[in-house]
Amino acid sequence: MANITKKVSWSSRADDSNATGEGTPLLNGSEQLGYSRQVSGGSISQIGRVSTVNMDEEITSEEDSLKGRPKEITHNEKLLSLKYESLDYDNSENQLFLEEERRMSYLGFRCLEISRWVVCGLIGFLTGLIACFIDIMVEQLTGLKYYVVKENIEKFTAGGGLSISLILWAVLNSAFVMVGAIIVAFFEPIAGGSGIPQIKCYLNGVKIPRVVRLKTLLVKVAGVICSVAGGLVVGKEGPMIHSGAVVAAGVSQGRSTSLKRDFKIFEYFRRDTEKRDFVSAGAAAGVSAAFGAPVGGVLFSLEEAASYWNQMLTWRIFFASMISTFTLNFFLSVYNKNPGELSNPGLINFGSFDRNVRSLCSFCGLLGALFNALNYWLTIFRIRYIHRPCLQVMEAMLVAAVTATVSFIMIYFSNACQPLDVVQGEDYPLQLYCDDGEYNSMATTFFNRPEKSVQNLFHNPPGSYHPLTLGVFTITYFFLACWTYGLAVSAGVFIPSLLIGAAWGRLIGIMLLGVTTTKVIWADPGKYALIGAAAQLGGIVRMTLSLTVILIEATGNVTYGLPLMLVLMTAKIVGDYFEEGLYDIHIKLQSVPFVHSEAPPTSHWLTAREVMSSPVTSFNRVERVGTIVDLLSNTSTNHNGFPVVVSNANGEEPAKLCGLILRSQLIVLLKHKVFVELARSKLTRRKLQLKDFRDAYPRFPPIQSIHVSQDERECMMDLTEFMNPTPYTVPQETSLPRVYKLFRALGLRHLVVVDDSNRVVGLVTRKDLARYHLGKHGLEELQLAQT
Amino acid sequence: MANITKKVSWSSRADDSNATGEGTPLLNGSEQLGYSRQVSGGSISQIGRVSTVNMDEEITSEEDSLKGRPKEITHNEKLLSLKYESLDYDNSENQLFLEEERRMSYLGFRCLEISRWVVCGLIGFLTGLIACFIDIMVEQLTGLKYYVVKENIEKFTAGGGLSISLILWAVLNSAFVMVGAIIVAFFEPIAGGSGIPQIKCYLNGVKIPRVVRLKTLLVKVAGVICSVAGGLVVGKEGPMIHSGAVVAAGVSQGRSTSLKRDFKIFEYFRRDTEKRDFVSAGAAAGVSAAFGAPVGGVLFSLEEAASYWNQMLTWRIFFASMISTFTLNFFLSVYNKNPGELSNPGLINFGSFDRNVRSLCSFCGLLGALFNALNYWLTIFRIRYIHRPCLQVMEAMLVAAVTATVSFIMIYFSNACQPLDVVQGEDYPLQLYCDDGEYNSMATTFFNRPEKSVQNLFHNPPGSYHPLTLGVFTITYFFLACWTYGLAVSAGVFIPSLLIGAAWGRLIGIMLLGVTTTKVIWADPGKYALIGAAAQLGGIVRMTLSLTVILIEATGNVTYGLPLMLVLMTAKIVGDYFEEGLYDIHIKLQSVPFVHSEAPPTSHWLTAREVMSSPVTSFNRVERVGTIVDLLSNTSTNHNGFPVVVSNANGEEPAKLCGLILRSQLIVLLKHKVFVELARSKLTRRKLQLKDFRDAYPRFPPIQSIHVSQDERECMMDLTEFMNPTPYTVPQETSLPRVYKLFRALGLRHLVVVDDSNRVVGLVTRKDLARYHLGKHGLEELQLAQT
């Protein structure tokens, strides 16, 4: 393999995973790399692998990328990475599959349907349990930490030795974060961040290596507990969504490849199509558990992910969401020694508001866009310079220490004393330098778990916070949150965004309260906090429908529906004007070939002929084993789907299309040596069944691990039974939007382009479509590279 | 035309509309009728139009169907009607279209996008206005009626001449209903019923004649006011959804064909694809106005209708919903002399609940299924015997009179006196035979507007209703509602269902209250009313996700989310076991070729070869005008889509596919006489543009209205520029589920089946797919007939 430069990936170690156990990733090229590309004018420009490895070099003119391990990684956002493969969301309806389907009775389909519901129930149950576990662990650890620090502060407040408290606090936080960062950076880099962009890509059809593994789940859960307990400006909601997705991918397969256990159940679900549906349900269950929002969960899955609306699927997703909320509520109620009290809506409960809000924020979207822009530059910086695991751990620890220090300094210098009786149910009121009977409100904001702080900002009565406190808090928290997102720790961005928004929302509320005279209507700054929180979060993640429902479900009151909707819609429109959503930015920075829901509007100029890759490597229906092995082993082409053709009797070329076969299928065929000429051994060998393909799924062995002797190379292989005989095709003249629509609506991986006699002329894959995007100067074409 | 029997349609007059102004419906056959059908074994069974006209006859063995106007219409539910055409939800990307798209700059697309938002805003605004108008009119009329009747009753209560009051009441009601029934039965039968099944079909791609016309809207609005004011057991929510859809279809076209006004705007939107998207938004806006549920509206559109989830579309639909709610609130607040008070959530506001519910109903779904079964038999009876407009009007009046009488008798014989002080804000408390300071609770239930009654059942304190009152009320209302749905009046089923459910829910609540000892928890029977209402409505219409959100938004409290979800899910599962949803039943009874979201599970046996219609009538790329005219005029075939082929030089047949052209396009071509040989006149004639097609849309003239002279018949017509050069195709071996998926995901109308050399062998249309459904004995095939 020609991986000379260090690859840029979700985290800098993800590529290493290819070599260790991912199966195909050893050959993780693209479907079409190495095909020569026929551009519109007819000129042929060759984009081969070897020539593109250092394509970045031309742009950054750095010379060190060839000298061993580079200090800086060159990165160009106008590239599309070739290292991401696609998932097969279109069933390969080959003879084996059809035979199985036809054998199955109506009763069989009913059983299958019921087991789908069972799996969804299980997904909801386990996701709820995990959410419950994370919540309890975080509560225990933070409680312990606060107790230690508070004791220490109170001990030293009089004596003036507060620097010792600061150091204690910073060290405690850094220790937690170090653990969290080490497991993420060294053991499972893909578990870093919120996981939502990765799940979005997965559901879009991009194979992100290791994203739904058991190990990822374990690291994610442990990591998020550490980073939240370590006082970082992060939330635990994004990781919970990722956890739900991993649970779904695991449970639905009825086995664990990591643990080498196969329960021999749910074998039917061992393919990408079914797995994707369950992963949608898992993500929804995660949202549902995190926010107590089952409907919001379903909408999240649909808005962020799914492309094809299917009623039955929607109902199952909904079911998983409900079960998840229910499980979480039940176990938390048991934990809180109040079993059966199920009114606890979710991990975030904003409490109920009781009156109407009529104001809109003016900042809608602006602050969100600023956040995204800053994070964008920070991420590019990280990709270039902070790509070694140890550097990543150190950065995380640095952030933890800085967070602690900044908080401490702000608490120390602020004189935001508030009378103690105003506060109800404050867990950690800290007196510090305040008079007796008072407490430091800045300390309260920093010391609480973020969820609790959001709730306080929403609900504490007017006068609980000093405006200056809120102002300083907003600015500090804004930059801290921006710095934190993208660290090599498991962390979500929901809660920090809500907190920042709630703080400035409440600040505006207080200021309006000072300006206006009609005090009765504008009385409660908590409502401004809610609106601000929605605006900030909406400006960052750019969800509308699902976020509205999530916030409604989390606040427990529909009265705020209309203002929330208006705010979120405004935030989206304003934000989109400046910058993309945070998740989209991160997806783009990883050069993921993401297929959006519609083709760029001005792309009618392009047709399949210009977009496709050609010429295409095809196989004959009965092909020589040696040819197949050679083609699969060719790392410079590395195709994943091959049209199968039949030649005419007179050998006219190119021959007519008669099917499509995948690399993974060929590998299974080679492994089981399904060769025509081996007549003797064929008698003893059972017919290859769908089960053999399912057993190998999803970690198909690389071609190098399959030994084919010289004799066997001369054998023939009959692909008829295994190929998909009815691949979708389009004529060459089809416009790009039309190709796009077909591709996206059906979740295709390979789309064969044929001429008017049904002869193969090209192949359209995900990367061919994702390349085109709307830039500042109209339609732009991204370059493909093996970054 | 061979329309000998009276056709069964949405209402018995719908077919007449074909002859008057619908354009194509004069030729409203099917896409494939008259093609001979090649069934699996290879045997050919001819289903021609003439031979199938009286196909019903064989089954019912009635003899009178040929003798003029039959007294009874034979009807068989195992038929699929050929009279419904499809809509073109797949753009015909011909050269004209592509040229226009390519001419358009990025700025042009931005403008288009903005105008889409503007249209959605307008749709929301107008829908809100209409909802407001209906609401105010109903309130005024019912107020007037109640006032008159109440005066009369109070006048006669002492004297005992209550029969006069009864007659007055019955006559008043019948008069209202008569007006409503006459305009529906005689002027616009399609405006009858709730309109939801029709909109569902429209969005599914079935062309229901006249369903989105201005006249339909007017009749619908007037009709629903009359029927609600006439005291029928109906709601005004379904009609409001239909109204929203009509508004959307009208506004988005920028002209009114009925009023002959063309504003020369939004011309780009004059095609089925764009129109459908706006109609989705209109339906959502209707739900939003009816229930104050913007999110519920979006989900309704998606759950009931759309097949392809598109983010941009979703956001626009959401926008329309919000505007609609906002408009309604604003104008109602002005009407209520409280301008600016926007907390009025919608036409139905169930008020806020304040505590948790933990009980599930045991009847979930059962009563709903019973309702549907009864209505099913009633509808069949109506189709057979009550198909003349005057009979329909008489039936409606009868129902109105019976409703009044039954209510009166129940009020008369009940002694459900309740103290007056319990009730807050009762609009029409009726003393009747009760003591002073008391009122008759049965009368209250019957006398209020249904929305108000539902609210009372939810919120009146324990003890407001006598259990016997509720029991009798439930039974009476159940049968009345069942009888009413399907009458020739504009009427919805939402509110009656909620009312029935609320009544029995409250009854159960009261009974449990009597049984149980822990009075504190079970204290409020209103919560049982809510659960009962959800169960009844869910059992009838079988929506889950959207109904949950609608009910949450209407109750204004998320706390009930989980119990509501559980109840709705149970109601759906239990109900589906016995009977389909009410809307699906009505769609099926009209023999509409509805394409569900998935193929029947056991249909892998079938391939495109068995499903398709063949042989197909094709045109050459340059075709003789006479041939085209003859084929279009042939009423026995009546195709709507024609593959265009090119023959080889040696004239080998069948030739290769090179495009697809629609009847409507050919008609425009013939009208503008775009003939190749007319060289002289061609010079003076401008090139045909997309505008000419848009101007003719959607009422293309019938072929009979176009005169083609004998000379012109010999001319040639070049179809190259106008045909869709890249129709979607499938090979013959493609399995039915795969064909289904492609067809449904892309909203196709014609899918060309080709052989391995790209030669046309068949055509798959909507009816070919809708024919297969899962019956009691496995896969069944419906017969096609010109019912």
Automatic annotation (TrEMBL), chains A, B:
Give a yes or no for keyword Nucleus in this entry. Answer: no
Query: Can you list the GO cellular component terms from the UniProt entry?
Result: lysosomal membrane
Q: Where in the cell is it found?
A: Membrane
Database matches in CDD domains: CBS_pair_voltage-gated_CLC_euk_bac, ClC_6_like
Alphabetized Pfam families for the sequence: CBS, Voltage_CLC
SUPFAM superfamilies linked to this entry: CBS-domain pair, Clc chloride channel
Q: What is its main location?
A: membrane
A GO molecular function held by the record = chloride:proton antiporter activity
Q: Which SMART domains match?
A: CBS
Keywords, in A-Z order: CBS domain, Chloride, Ion transport, Membrane, Repeat, Transmembrane, Transmembrane helix, Transport
Ranges of residues in domain CBS: 723-781
Q: Does the keyword Transmembrane apply?
A: yes
The UniProt entry lists membrane topology as: Multi-pass membrane protein
Question: TM spans, by residue?
Answer: 117-138, 158-187, 217-235, 278-301, 313-336, 356-378, 390-413, 465-486, 498-522, 528-552
Could you say which residues form the signal peptide? none
Where is the segment annotated Disordered? 1-31
Q: What does the similarity note say?
A: Belongs to the chloride channel (TC 2.A.49) family.
Record-linked PANTHER family: CHLORIDE CHANNEL PROTEIN CLC FAMILY MEMBER, H(+)_CL(-) EXCHANGE TRANSPORTER 7
Name this polypeptide is given:
Chloride channel protein
Species of origin = Gadus morhua (Atlantic cod)
